[in-house]
Design goal:
The chain has four helices and nine strands, in the order E-H-E-E-E-E-H-E-E-E-H-E-H. With about 170 residues, the chain is an alpha+beta fold. It has a single domain (about 5-170), classed as Hypothetical Protein Pfu-838710-001.
Length: about 170
């Protein structure tokens, strides 16, 4: 079932204040996940296999490349750790890019926060306002995302309009 997500990604030269804000809001800290995201050459949208010590998921998503809050249509399947799906997908579709990151994962209600250190790219913050049940609505998700952008002091010039895979491929 597709999930609606309003999300942003931004450069973050100093993640400590964002971590402090999340702690002050009593965010549920899930831990630091070392994730390898393998992007495949999908005919539409993006398809990635996430392999981590917390999250292991096959994810297909379609979203516009725009710097501000954007609506992503996401379909995913959680997988058991150690799944050998990567070789099958690579043989069938070819690998587009690989992103290696360490990700701090936090939740406040339906909003997920990532503080990422991406190999070759640097530090970033992501905000994902998530509606898995279809009951929250796009406008509320946009409001939630905007609230945290303001709270964290994220500047318009720090917003990123593309995927980490696009940034890796530009290097």
């Amino acid at each position: 079932m597709p999930v609606n997500i309003i999300e942003i990604k931004a450069k973050c030269s100093n993640p400590a204040p964002i971590r402090a804000i999340l702690q002050s809001k009593q965010a549920d800290f899930k831990g630091i996940d070392h994730q390898i995201d393998t992007y495949f050459k999908a005919p539409n949208g993006r398809l990635k296999l996430r392999e981590g010590n917390i999250e292991n998921t096959l994810i297909h998503y379609d979203r516009p490349n725009q710097a501000g809050p954007k609506n992503s249509k996401v379909t995913y399947q959680r997988l058991p750790a150690g799944t050998d799906l990567k070789n099958v997908l690579a043989a069938a579709m070819g690998v587009l890019a690989v992103v290696d990151k360490k990700r701090g994962i936090y939740f406040i209600d339906n909003v997920k926060f990532h503080i990422d250190e991406v190999k070759e790219l640097g530090a970033f913050v992501e905000i994902e306002a998530i509606d898995e049940s279809g009951t929250i609505g796009i406008e509320t998700l946009k409001e939630q995302c905007a609230y945290y952008i303001d709270l964290f002091g994220i500047l318009a010039e720090d917003l990123i309009d593309v995927s980490y895979s696009d940034l890796i491929m530009e290097k």
